[in-house]
Design a protein that fits this description.
The protein is an alpha+beta fold and 292 residues long. 25% of the residues lie in helices and 22% in strands. 29% of the residues are buried.
């Protein structure tokens, strides 16, 4: 038997060590490194830093806000100024309306000191303000309850209305003026003689599936009620979520409504499966949706 030299012995030991280490690695079970769980932030529908409507309210996860052309009525509504988060609705006489489960934000727009700007009036106010801001004076017009065509074009020429029983006529009594003060005086007169009955007849019916910003849920009556769609978000499946605004009785700030069917504070509504559409202070039928 040949003698093992020192060199042979060292080579043998190295090969043995390598073989053992290789086998132990092959047989050992893997030990995956644990990864920390990903914490998803809870969705909050309110961004308290937002100064305008579209910046204040965050669409639900998976939904993207629909954008509209600059200068459109839809874009105007999405940019309505908001009072600071947590503000209470004020009545025309200075009283306050606690939020309860009715509203979740307040539009920063004056309402005057008379009990005039109620539900339908607030919607006409928004429409009138948009048209005035766009210098579309000839497009500012509303039907009064008796059907009289109340136009700002006539008002700014210096005409005022004369009411005799149920009859109304124009009488020239002022100098021509298109100032904002005159516009507000005109709107107050509209508020006094128009309402849900007249506005419901004036608007055109649209399908609930075609709902867009600027559409109005309205039931004409005494009393009736009306709310307006002021924002809209859509997901990849085409489902819609939307915001609603209203005034109410007595005259009060325009407010962004809470969805009464949600257990937590949530201003986003969806098209219901049932025939009744529920809002905090009024229930509508699905065929009550109309458009300017």
């Amino acid at each position: 038997m040949p003698k093992l030299t020192l060199v042979h012995l060292l080579v043998f030991l190295l090969l043995s060590t390598y073989s053992c280490n290789s086998n132990s690695q092959d047989l050992a079970e893997p030990h995956p490194v644990p990864r920390p769980a990903v914490q998803q932030e809870a969705w909050s529908p309110i961004d308290t830093s937002g100064k305008i409507l579209k910046d204040r309210f965050v669409p639900p996860p998976g939904f993207k806000r629909k954008t509209y052309a600059s200068g459109s009525f839809e874009n105007y509504l999405q940019q309505l100024p908001m009072k600071s988060d947590g503000s209470w609705v004020k009545y025309y006489n200075g009283g306050q309306k606690p939020p309860g489960r009715v509203y979740i934000g307040v539009i920063d727009m004056d309402i005057g000191t008379r009990d005039l700007q109620q539900c339908a009036d607030a919607i006409m106010r928004l429409r009138g303000e948009y048209l005035y801001m766009a210098n579309r004076y000839d497009d500012i017009r509303f039907d009064l309850t008796n059907g009289f065509d109340m136009t700002f074009a006539k008002w700014r020429q210096g005409y005022r209305i004369k009411v005799t029983g149920n009859k109304i006529s124009w009488v020239k009594s002022k100098s021509p003026s298109s100032t904002y003060t005159q516009f507000r005086s005109y709107m107050n007169m509209v508020f006094a003689y128009a309402g849900t009955l007249s506005l419901a007849k004036e608007l055109e019916s649209v399908s609930i599936q075609d709902l867009q910003v600027g559409d109005v849920f309205i039931q004409g009556g005494s009393p009736g009620h009306a709310v307006i769609v002021v924002d809209l978000a859509v997901n990849e499946e085409g489902e819609k979520r939307f915001l609603l605004a209203q005034s109410y009785m007595p005259a009060q700030d325009i407010q962004i409504l809470q969805n009464p069917t949600e257990s937590t504070k949530n201003p986003w509504f969806s098209i219901p499966d049932q025939a009744i559409f529920e809002t905090p202070e009024w229930n509508f039928d699905l065929d009550n949706l109309k458009r300017f």
